[in-house]
Amino acid sequence: MTDGQPSDPARRDAYAINAATVDAILAAVEVGARDRLISLLDPLHEADIADLLEQIDNASRGKLIRLWGDDIYPFVFSELEEGVRDQILPLLTESQLARVVKELD
Q: Which has more pLDDT, 104 or 78?
C-alpha cells in the first residue's frame, strides 16, 4: 500500500464509484428501494459517497438522504465540500443529525 489505497485489488475497487453504481443508486432512490440503496452504499468509502452527493442534483440528494434514514454514515459529512454540507444538513431528520453529531464529536 503505497498510494493510500488498499493493496488488494478487490478492496481497492471498493473505494471507487463508477457510473453503473451511481445509476443503480439513483434508480434505487427513485423507486424508494431502501434495502437496495443501503446494499449499494455499504461497500463504498465515505469519500466516494460524498463525491456522489456532490455530483447529483438537489432533488436526488434530498431523496437519497431521506431514504438512507438512520443508516446514514456520519463520516460522509467530514468528506463533503462545505457548500454541499450546508445544503444537506437542513434535510437531516433529528435522529440523523443526532447520529452525525455524536459520531463526529
A: 78
Give me the pLDDT at residue 15, please. 52
Task: Give the global pTM.
Answer: 0.79
Q: How far apart are CA 101 and CA 77, in angstroms?
A: 10
Whether 89 and 61 have beta carbons less than 8 Å apart is answered as no
What average pLDDT is seen over the chain?
Answer: 86
Written in H, E and C, the secondary structure of 7-66 is CCHHHHHCCCCCHHHHHHHHHHHHHCCHHHHHHHHCCCCHHHHHHHHHHCCHHHHHHHHH
Amino acid at 62: G
All three cell numbers of 53, joined, read 452527493
